[in-house]
Predict the structure.
Amino acid sequence: MTDLSSFSDAGLVDALLMEVAGMLGRLIERGETATVDLRGLPLSPACIADLESRLGHGEISVQLDAAGRSDIHETGFPGVWWTRHADEAGRPIALLIEVTTVPDILRADPADMADSLQRLAGATHFASHQHARHG
Amino acid sequence: MDESETLGTVLKRRGFSRRSLLKFAIAMTSSLALPPSIAPLMAANLARAKRRSVIWLSFQECTGCLETLLRSSSPTIDSLIFDFISLDYQETLMAAAGTAAERTLREAVAANKGEYLLAIDGSIPTKDGGVYSLTGGRSNFDMLMEFATDAKAVLAIGTCAAYGGIPKAHPNPTGAVGVEDLVTNKPIVNIPGCPPVPEVLSGVLVHFVSFGKLPELDDRKRPLAYFGTTIHDQCYRRPFYDQGKFAKSFDDEGARQGWCLFELGCKGPVTHNACASLKWNGGTSFPIESGHGCIGCSEPDFWDKGSFYTSLAGGSSTGWRNAGIAAAVGIAGGAAAALSARRKPGAEPAGPDPEKPDPDKQP
């Protein structure tokens, strides 16, 4: 297979960074979130690596284990996130730049929270019951 | 599985979280070229979705389409989505045969009248009363026309079902045609390719299950998200094309450097498909990445348009010539302009000089 891993088009990367800057401006001014789907763009692996490198790494890194691994980190530009989703076989299924305060997938879902409240209450009841028996 | 169960219920029982479903929806919106912001809505709709019936009829075909689509499944949510497609009839896969299979088909049609998807792979022979391909003594033509009547939509899977494909190749001894040549009163989705990219079918099905309708189609009834751009538009070798760097043979220095394969006959500039973005074998690669030009297998009559190794710029075969010259109109601008053009559905690429000598004839 031909190896083009070393090829990077700086023009494409610059154009994308300008687009992200525009998105960040709209997030600040209007609270408008945005996402760039990198897999939908004709970028070589080197281009993507270049883009990731130029965005840098900020203070937050998250590993999500949900139907495969996801790695999410805030870039060196707060409000700009780098999100890589893989399936259970480790194959990449989405590569995104998310311009938002916090990526949606990290927020707890209301239905999940209601379910966890029930389970937590059950666990607490069980715990107090056990405590009463052995105390 | 209880037919009344929702996908959300099944997912919860199997230990998939809502984040898993949202993640799947993010991947599917990416695949369908939908705005990423629609992923939460898709996830919510999928959670509420119930099973949809699919009846699959195989006509004049090689089973390659079914083979590749079976290879798309993996032990993830994708496979659960396929659980939500009730494949009620598929002759190659089902255990039942003969009258039992026929009974299953009738029952599925009766139970899902007006709601089932009819999937077709293979072309339909029309010459001599359609005698060249029969199932249980019935012609493909008769079966198509009968079962399309009560279908919600017809999916023409593969180039043969979409356009007639290889059975239609000259001299077309069986009078083969595609579905759209015969069915004129139903929504049709063409998913061409020899074979088609499996993720395209997944995307169409997920769109149907989650939004209750078919995805947006182009003027050839193909899902716009996957066929809106050419292979060339999405090709990672495109920058070399823009720079005028072309491999002259399959083993020259240019080929080793990954230069554009246009002069070696690549049909990427006139072929609409998603190979370059979705790739094959679980996202491993696609033919151009393996060093071979696109053969244009998802375009009508690709088999009759001349050598796979003749440049679109000319040469002895002329089948692609008009398209090649059309693709040559315009000159690529800077990187951002090229990127913008590639995102516009149907945007045609710039091309090299159509008068350039045919590489096949070079010494």
User: Anything to note?
Assistant: The first helix of chain A runs from residue 10 to 30. DSSP finds three helices and five strands in chain A. Helices of chain A lie at 10-30, 45-55, 110-134.
